[in-house]
């Protein structure tokens, strides 16, 4: 008999743990339901009859409305379930009591910076101001990395196509995200490579970087250099001698954790995301910083985050952030519900409400302490909400620019992508973890059989090892990318 997971007593659907044929027996909370259709693993089976227009409930909240009569045993998916999302809304401040969170005794070996921040890597990053010198930055980094510089974990270039033909806020956002990356503590030193004639002038970019950070930043203008690659490599060697460092023991209160999901499936909200939520609370409870983003993927679950605002001011800023994002969609003629992706749908997720209710679980139970704009840094202990879209590369880059030193990335479908800081890939299901060990670092599917406690401790141990220098799958594969959110016109 196939089992199905019924999350909340109020739910009208349950999630299948394996494929079931037509007429197959499904066990739900000790009772047997006969499947009226062939239903795939991770998809939903109705456990209560539903009338047209009636709310379909999962996680204890509506995930949309039935578009036709649904009988017990029917598959509940795109043919009979539709989103109920609309545009901008008025929200009510209903603050929940702050939970009591405690951290464990978790530690890692990190690099303590002069400003007190702690890094999980001591690398030299090469950042181009403009796409015209992207390959130049790559060559400088490759040459520098080949030197195997003592006390340096690696030399990496993070290239992009922007920095010119941009105007106003769009150019300012590109500059701000690059400045944020230049300030990430994992970059022991930074070489900024400019072309010379671009809109994103080095002087203006450097002005975005705090004065005390500029001591570990070197700049190069390619149009003014006789041999820009040789000069760039010389700057890397100069920096390496200045920023070489050794690791020291620190606790998780010195960790800055970014949390992200991508390529989600029907198990993401049942296994990987709630497991990451426990880690968010563990790090935040210890006094560390946790950053959550991908704002369009809280649509339908935003009130849950708003209820966790630490103050009326934080609540108001969450409301503004959510409604501004909805306005951004509507101003481009797009519905706010244009999600989930084809891969999400194939994996069992039907509506954005369902996806969002699973996604927000990465934020755990903590109060939202702060709300920050795209390209800005998280500065407070606890949970920070960061402005960025759902796109994996754009939002993960924003997490790194906000100061994350480790990213926990959950996935049900799998992705090889990696980002500037160590990115731990967490599979929502054991089949993916077994099929893609070259992509996946941790199998959250184990919680279905073993429960959350053992998995939480195992994941904390893995985070400690990665923060201490163990490579993630993405790092072993050389997967390190950035992407910048472009919202303006191109000249």
UniProtKB/TrEMBL annotation:
Supply the name of the protein: Altronate dehydratase
Listed A to Z, the keywords are:
Lyase
Q: Where does the SAF domain start and stop, copy by copy?
A: 11-82
Q: Which SMART domains match?
A: SAF
Q: Which GO terms describe its molecular function?
A: lyase activity
The record's listing under Gene3D superfamilies reads: 2.30.130.110
UniProt lists the family membership as follows: Belongs to the UxaA family.
GO BP = D-galacturonate catabolic process
One Pfam family here: GD_AH_C
